[in-house]
Amino acid sequence: MAVKVDLYHKSDVVADLKELAKFDDNGDVKPRVSVYNRELKNAIDRNINAMHLAYISLCEKFQAANITSDMFETEVERQLNPESMRIKKRNEDC
Q1: 23 contacts 41 by C-beta, under 8 angstroms
Q2: If you compute the radius of gyration of the chain from its CA atoms, what whole number of angstroms results?
Q3: Fewer Cβ atoms within 10 Å of its own Cβ: the N or the C terminal residue of the chain?
Q4: What is the pLDDT of residue 89?
Q5: Is 23 in contact with 88 (CB distance < 8 Å)?
Q6: How many CB atoms lie within 10 A of CB 40?
Q7: According to the model, what pLDDT value does residue 8 have?
Q8: Quick one: pLDDT at residue 5?
């Protein structure tokens, strides 16, 4: 039986609503849109990719139903900023 898990990530990507309206819910450029903010598209793709990798990583360690939003957010941050997470971990070990 498949378990449905709803996890969210609040990114630090700031965008104008007009620019955001050019993308669908999956981060893809909507049909018939040819002019869009490529920097925004890259930021959206980077965050979506980090969320996918975070979920895969957590599912390797835990059952999906046991993954909390805090665990997910921490893992997304690790995917987006692996170096800063290593520094944070080192500081916690001291």
Answers
A1: yes
A2: 16
A3: N
A4: 59
A5: no
A6: 18
A7: 86
A8: 77
For residues 24 and 41, the answer to whether their CB atoms sit within 8 Å is no
The identity of residue 92, as a single letter, is E
Alpha-carbon span 82 to 77, nearest angstrom: 8
The residues that bridge with 39 in the sheet, in sequence order, are none
DSSP code of residue 64 = G
In the chain, the amino acid numbered 2 is A
CA 53 to chain centre: 8
Amino acid at site 75: E
**Structure tokens, 52:** 């996918």
pLDDT tens per residue, the chain (94 residues)?
A: 666 778 888 899 999 999 999 999 999 999 999 999 999 999 999 999 999 999 999 999 999 889 999 999 999 999 999 887 665 655 666 5
Burial class (CB in 10 A: 0-12, 13-18, 19+), 54: buried
